[in-house]
Amino acid sequence: MRRALSGLALAGLLLTATACGSSGESSGGTESGADQVKVGVIPILDVAPIYLGKEKGFFTSRNIELTMEAGQGGAAIVPGVVSGQFQFGFSNMTSLLIAQTKNVPIKTVAAGVASTGEQGKDFGAVMVKADSPIKTAADLAGKKISVNTLKNIGDTTVRESVRKAGGDPKSVAFVEMPFPNMPAALQDGQVDASWVVEPQLSQVKAAGGRLVASNFVDAAPGLTVAAYFTSAKLAGEDADLVKRFTEAINESLTYAGSHPDEVRAVLGSYTKIDEKTRGELILPKWPTEINQASVETLAKLGEQDGIFDGATPDVSKILP
Question: Where is this chain's protein located in or outside the cell (predicted)?
Answer without folding.
Answer: Periplasm
